[in-house]
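Materials and Methods. Structural model of uridine/cytidine kinase. The 220-residue sequence of uridine/cytidine kinase from Canis lupus familiaris was retrieved and submitted for structure prediction as follows.
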Amino acid sequence: MASAGGGDCEAAAPEADRPHQRPFLIGVSGGTASGKSTVCEKIMELLGQNEVDHRQRKLVILSQDRFYKVLTPEQKAKALKGQYNFDHPDAFDNDLMHRTLKNIVEGKTVEVPTYDFVTHSRLAETTVVYPADVVLFEGILVFYSQEVRDMFHLRLFVDTDSDVRLSRRDQEICGCDHPSGGRQHGGHQPDRAAHPGHPEWRHLQVAPRVQWAELQEDLP
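The predicted structure was written out as tokens:
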């Protein structure tokens, strides 16, 4: 078990050092490689939290990528061949995600899972997230489930040109450019449903998110 500090899932001060409170929960959605993490980091910078010691920060960034399901042997075999769709709603452990966010909104300290995209497995190590004033929860399908969607106090959609996103995605697949702690595909081609030209793409990735967003951020 680790205490978060840096990048995704950055922890605020231990709850013993500050009172419990209900945080302002912001959902940040957008297509694969749209710049969701960049937007979250910019919000942290604008709030003056990027250079604050992680034990004193009042803002937490949490990624939906941490909540992928534990795969069956058959699913893991497909994932290792690049044939498993990680961008589908069923790929996530939605019950665990909802319980964790519920506890966060209630001002509780939580442990969040760690997912390894090289081995396609959930690690035994967890990260402790302490109560914070603002929590940013980012991911491609954070607005898909109504239970989760209704928990957000603000919903933000990051809209980026599809050609730019595909270029970034190709870099991630090649292992040329991926942030620490972010999604890594281990050199395997992800499911073609992640491509904007795939028939399922708009149904799964765009419609459920733009429809429910309250703010839309257009990135070049």
